[in-house]
Amino acid sequence: MDxxxxxxxxxxxxxxxxxxxxxGLALIWGTLGMFNMAHxxxxxxxAYGSYSAVAYLGLPVYIGLPAGFVVGGLTGCITHLLIxxxxxxTRNFGxxxxxxxAGVAIVLEDLILKGFGAYPFRQPVSLTGGFRVGNVxxxxxxxxxxxxxxxxxxxxxxxxxxxxxxxxxxATAMNLDAARLMGVRTERTYLxxxxxxxxxxxxxxxxxxxxxxxxxxxxxxxxLKAFVICVVAGLGHVGGTGLAAVSLGLIEAAxxxxxxxxxxxxxxxxxxxxxxxxxxxxxxGKKVVVRL
Amino acid sequence: MTxxxxxxxxxxxxxxxxxxxxxxxxxxESVFALIGPNGHGKTTLLRSLSGIIRPRAGxxxxxxxxxxxxxxHRRVELGLIHIPQGDQLFGEMSIEENLLMGAYLRNDQSxxxxxxxxxxxxxxxxxxxxxQLANSLSGGERRMxxxxxxxMADGKFMMxxxxxxxxxxxxxxxxxxxxxxxxxxxxxxxxxxENPVRIAEIADKLALMDGGRIVWSxxxxxxxxxxxxxxxYFGGH
Lengths: 292, 237
Hints:
The complex is a heterodimer of chains A (292) and B (237).
Chain A: H1 2-32, H2 39-55, H3 64-87, H4 93-116, E1 130-133, E2 136-139, H5 140-162, H6 164-174, H7 176-181, H8 186-211, H9 220-233, H10 238-259, H11 264-278
Antiparallel strand pairs in A: 1-2
Chain B: E1 2-13, E2 16-27, E3 31-35, H1 42-50, E4 57-62, E5 65-66, H2 72-78, E6 80-83, H3 95-102, H4 109-122, H5 124-128, H6 139-152, E7 157-161, H7 169-182, E8 188-193, H8 196-202, E9 205-210, E10 213-218, H9 220-223, H10 227-234
Parallel strand pairs in B: 3-8, 3-9, 6-7, 7-8
Antiparallel strand pairs in B: 1-2, 1-4, 4-5, 9-10
Helix pairs in contact in B: 3-6, 4-6
């Protein structure tokens, strides 16, 4: 029983962080058809943003998370205004933007390295202590991670499904020309999508760094996992991405417990490969249906 | 009164001009039909009018205002509504969400609700299926949803690209009855059709397109005796 609780607690925490990291990636893919190679750096910047707000500006700890959220969102906006805006709709956009955002990631990572150094800072925005369930200690920080991720994802879902802004985003993703004919300013929609995805990534970065430390490279591993999760869910499917993230988090926690921590990611990748052999379009990916 | 005036419009894709020097005027509250076989520039013309593509030369004046340089959403704001070929619905949205997207630029939510009920009253089938995904609709229902979505914009000028495309004869009849009713609603219509027979019954004026040019235009009564018609459709001189 303790084993079970332990796996659920760890898996839910991992899954929550992965979900938050992946949803933005899926949203950007679904709307712009672009794989954002800078997504990991959005997370890193969010984490450093919240660290700076608390450690340098002396703001209270509870401002740390919103600070990461805002800094991530601004980074998304800047990426759009300086780069994506000029490339979207051009030939071979999908490939070119991968290279461009990979470049953004390198520049941002080096800027962080220059500004903060390689020293692994501790994220001050975290709670200490925990409580026991049976013989298992569940930390308060894990609870915060699950709660924050669930709340942000619920907010994103509400935004996408129930608001006019969300309807415009979905319309743009489904049919660009038709959305424009309805009067949607799709350039603005793209900016909004990058802002939302950046903010979610920033918040994810704060949460991830609260369990480990801050480092300029910290975004690489979660982005890789987020990408795997997006592929499993079916590229661009935002709802499926959340589900896939939690499932993979639980699987990873179970593997880490039974086989050892270092096997977590390899086994996860192995399972994903098998899964994709079975369903090449992912969990919710659509086959292309030609209809006359 | 002329509501839309097009002068010497030339447009196309990349290095492939599709429209050559097209000029015509559309009278307010009339039905203007562009006919001609596929691949002769009719859809390109509509896409130029709504701003999806930029014409290379010529001018477009709508309601006294030059619209050539305006962005797509500004033209929608002016009331120039384009119902594209093949409906182009938002497949993963419900019918109601599709219709609400049609009213995207309208801010008066109570007026939008009224329009929504009007569309449901006009196409009862859409009302019955309002929460169904657009992907799951039949061809006829999709066409109704496409036209309904255009009506939701509450624009005064509706451009419809091939309302009968891909429909069975009975459904074409239904759609045309709807269009006939709508044509008396104070709006102006610019309708594209490949098949001239049915559209000639509701149009006030027709224009025949051939090879990206308008080769004939006139009232429907003169269409039947027009030699150009068979030349355009069947070739020969």
